[in-house]
Amino acid sequence: MDPVNPDDTERAPRLSTRPLRADAQRNRARVLAAAQDAFAADGLAVPLDEIARRAGVGAGTVYRHFPTKEALFEAVILDRLTRMVRYAQSLAEADEPGPAFFEMLHRLVTGASGSRDLADALAGSDLASAGQITAAKRELTQAGEVLLRRAQTAGAARGDIDIDDLMALVTGATMALRQPGEASRRDAVYAVLRDGLRPPGRSG
Amino acid sequence: MDPVNPDDTERAPRLSTRPLRADAQRNRARVLAAAQDAFAADGLAVPLDEIARRAGVGAGTVYRHFPTKEALFEAVILDRLTRMVRYAQSLAEADEPGPAFFEMLHRLVTGASGSRDLADALAGSDLASAGQITAAKRELTQAGEVLLRRAQTAGAARGDIDIDDLMALVTGATMALRQPGEASRRDAVYAVLRDGLRPPGRSG
Amino acid sequence: MDPVNPDDTERAPRLSTRPLRADAQRNRARVLAAAQDAFAADGLAVPLDEIARRAGVGAGTVYRHFPTKEALFEAVILDRLTRMVRYAQSLAEADEPGPAFFEMLHRLVTGASGSRDLADALAGSDLASAGQITAAKRELTQAGEVLLRRAQTAGAARGDIDIDDLMALVTGATMALRQPGEASRRDAVYAVLRDGLRPPGRSG
Amino acid sequence: MDPVNPDDTERAPRLSTRPLRADAQRNRARVLAAAQDAFAADGLAVPLDEIARRAGVGAGTVYRHFPTKEALFEAVILDRLTRMVRYAQSLAEADEPGPAFFEMLHRLVTGASGSRDLADALAGSDLASAGQITAAKRELTQAGEVLLRRAQTAGAARGDIDIDDLMALVTGATMALRQPGEASRRDAVYAVLRDGLRPPGRSG
DNA sequence: GATGAATGAGCATTCATTCAT
DNA sequence: AATGAATGAATGCTCATTCAT
């Protein structure tokens, strides 16, 4: 499974509620998938009717599953962030802190590129700052912090930056690469970040 | 004068036209200033009425000075880009290519941060791609290319990236730093980019 | 059925699409009816909100059924023109060319009077020249031409005018009679046109 | 002098007011001339700023001479109608009532063609129904009535129409010919009206 | 539950009219 | 008196959200 780009759809939690009927479940998944594509391509600007159309459902159905457009956006972003968090957590206990850290960096930079929505979310765009997203970002930050510290302790990453600096850098890279045409620059962008994050005086 | 962030308002050229009346001049400046603030804070999404309100004028007055909202956006961005271009060009013939290059990088990263509008423009946002902006971006790219090449030839910058990679990195940094709270990370972000752009194997 | 002035509402064709829901059908009809009245009274100048208000629906509903104000106007005019064309065509093979021609003339003059919208459309008003209307006007012209020629050949109509002259005359009569008070002059206006269109030297 | 299309500008009455300064007089004339052209070409739809621009004056100057746009329109139409009235009156005592009547008809039809404004005014368009215009139209009607009656009495015009029928016919012809391209149909349109207005049974 | 029609507030833009210069 | 800048109400259109079917 790609840790960042979802191919399968997250099962909705729906705590303390009867499980969705099979067709409702399917519609919810369709809407999420359509929203992922649409938001990734055009950001929040895409009309909700367009998402409904792509999902092959009526607008009302979207609203049955997500109370507002913003909530749908949140769900899409959360899905992505959650994957990232899991992946970061899975690397937290790797044997070699350096490679684990740079592996994570690489995934973030290359996995999020071309996704306007994620870029917006990471950058804290107005509409994307709602509760759960902030929480997920904090989780991601915490997981990343572990990786960063371990790499720093191991001498694999420069010591004069903190996790917030790193998140800013990752956010920037994500935004830089969110334009379709720019996706081809992934490797160069990653290379610069990677080398810039090494401890000073160390060869690449 | 800060080469990037305008504190004074560009005197409108108005080639071969009689100068604006004093009050019109003042209102034009007010509108531009309000637009700069508003666009920087919220990007193109700000309603034009909001800009007019902030400027203390009616909506019609904004349209007297700028034929469309997009034209106003263009004017704001062009002002900034033009400053950047001038600065880049002034560094093109510096004695030491390396410092000149990194000086430019530093200015771009620290000077443009916090401006959502500029970030949008550099990133080629849909609505911000109109004629003159594209031209100004090309100019900036060309001026930056000279600096980059000279630094690469002098062995001061890594050779495996091109100007478009660099612009992507700068754009990303700009966007990452556009949030108010993130402005304090400028130095760390710059440091990583600087070190990442040095030739491999060279000490910081 | 009056061939020109609609009392019943044209059943919307909606080729190869599922029929509209009952309520939507009703609203569409209401909008069309309100638009017919409003356009007939004031021409294209009526605000769309006014039409919506008269129809008892929101402005958005009008746009759901007709993508632009112009499209609504077109629909209204097309409805009328189509009736005219059908009627003209039904007369094209009448046994007696003269009476057929003058029958058509009478219908046009008396049936279209009082309709500012139709007058505008026939006169080629700027905004009313869109695609389908032009096509329908051409159809009407062609159908009228057959009637005119047959009448001319039969010696029932003067030979020194062509179909465009005739359309100009009809258009003029339509516009002249579009004022409420003027509708009573229909008969006199028709009589003058009729006699003026007879071959010279023939008694009335 | 053309009795209908003005080459010189009517001297403004300005009762019981000191005469206008020479430059004001000139500006008033310019505005009227520009308004005549503009209204004739595009009807009331032309923006007032456009008229001011064509006249080479500021918008404020137009308002100094005419309190509203409607008043300016009125002035333009009045100028035309007044000429028509004078011409009709000058024919009222001609030796031969028949030729005098048809001469007037010819002038009206050919002189007003291509003038959207006059067509609108004669047809009683909403904005063109203000006081003085109505009065002038009544004057024109009265003058025309004399000509019509004399012609009818002399057996030169059909007896079964009244002046209001005639005005409707003239209005219609004017509107039919108000489109630029239709002006070439003047002769045919006039011929039909002329022959249609002759007494029945009389040769052309 | 699903549908998609209806709503209505919001936005960019125009233009008649007023007023400071 | 003239100018033209400023005003602000009006208009066509979009779209998030609600609701009848």
Fold blueprint:
4 copies of one chain form a homotetramer.
Chain A: H1 22-42, H2 48-55, H3 59-65, H4 69-91, H5 97-112, H6 116-122, H7 131-153, H8 163-176, H9 186-197
Helix pairs in contact in A: 1-2, 1-4, 4-5, 4-7, 5-7, 5-9, 6-8
Chain C binds a DNA duplex (21 and 21 nucleotides) through residues 20-24, 27, 47-49, 57-61, 63-65, 67-69.
The biggest beta sheet of chain A reads:
none
* Proper CATH architecture of the largest domain in chain A: Orthogonal Bundle
Question: N- to C-terminal separation of chain A?
Answer: 30 Å
* CATH first level of the largest domain in chain A: Mainly Alpha
Overall helicity of chain A: 55-70%
The CATH topology name of the largest domain in chain A reads Tetracycline Repressor, domain 2
Q: Round the mean pLDDT of chain A to the nearest integer and report it.
A: 84
CATH superfamily of the largest domain in chain A: Tetracycline Repressor, domain 2
Number of domains of chain A: 2
Question: What kind of assembly state do the chains in view correspond to?
Answer: homotetramer
Name the biggest interface: A-B, 38 and 38 residues
Estimate the global geometry of chain A from the Cα principal axes.
elongated
**How many H/I helices of chain A?**
9
Uncertain residue segments of chain A: 6-15
Would you report the number of β strands of chain A?
A: 0
